[in-house]
């Protein structure tokens, strides 16, 4: 693996000062709320808004492939994503469309629109259900339902939802959240998922949740979804920032081998170091939600930041941007300020969660959101504070030469090994996903030949075997 950035050196994205704006309370539902949100963010001194667009397979917008949210608080005919993007851009701020990728529904507040995926492919859809399930067939995690990335229709639905935002809104990037399986490990037991696993691997029976081969296969399905979205989104807009909000549970790992023992990798099946190495992520925003008053967690915060910067490098040697996302809602303003400063001193960017709950007292309903914002602004904007000298984040998204292709017409489209050759040398190889898509990023600038092995012997990947991209991506 190429060496990481030198200790103390700033990574790309070090100028990022961000704020998550969620859709679970005031902030995005009316023109007045959006105006206030952008004004408050400007006064706070942030330069990037991570705006929740797709929440639970529905959108705080009017022009996505998924239906709008059905909240009564949403002003009729109002498009929050369009409004916040226009107003933030006018202030010199970037807007990243934040997407809960696998979110399907919350039973306490279901979307009531007829075309919503929970109605068409939910628990009552029988064999057409796209939900992730436990071995006993249950699908609820608390009150939430999750889509299974190993089900072909679900994977395509999730990819198209993100891509519709890229096509129809002038956002500066997309952030993939809930790009994983639910906590607990025992998920992915829909009959269609099990049938795919058996067909692709040749393994009979029903695997145990702890079966390493089963875990690795499901982890691969999550990674395939990241790959598909990243490569296709970059083909639509090479200047787009591809980001993920990533898991940092408990004790930080010392190295990649230790990472594979963490809950991030082994429980929720998220391999974000691999996504950075493959060139699918331009920006990794750690959900490093720790509480400094607990000494153990203060160490965890710094340890995860240190690990992330050590592995923030693509296979071609280019560094990847990393930002520490902090839990403002779990901490006092003083702790938020301290964590933001430590992140910046480590050469990372910073993103706070969240606009709606900027302090522990707001989260505990002992303080209004306006009071919390004022309190956190005072410490972040104080001399020497993380936002003392606000400025724009003008850095351009990195350009990576990549290829996205698809094999069609096979009985088993997933799990086909595809190789990329340049000048007689094998430069990369990857397996196809549930829909037959394969792809590579961070490729050297030379003509590329793809080949795949099927029962009839090696063949060129359809529809064309050579790619001489001069821009960011080419999709075959």
TrEMBL record:
The keyword Signal applies. This is Glycoside hydrolase family 10 protein. Pfam families: GHL10. InterPro entries: Divisome_Glycosyl_Hydrolase, GH, GHL10. The lineage of its organism: Bacteria, Thermotogati, Deinococcota, Deinococci, Deinococcales. GO terms for molecular function: hydrolase activity. It comes from Deinococcus multiflagellatus. Keywords: Hydrolase, Signal. Residues 16-291 form the Glycosyl hydrolase-like domain. It comes from the Bacteria.
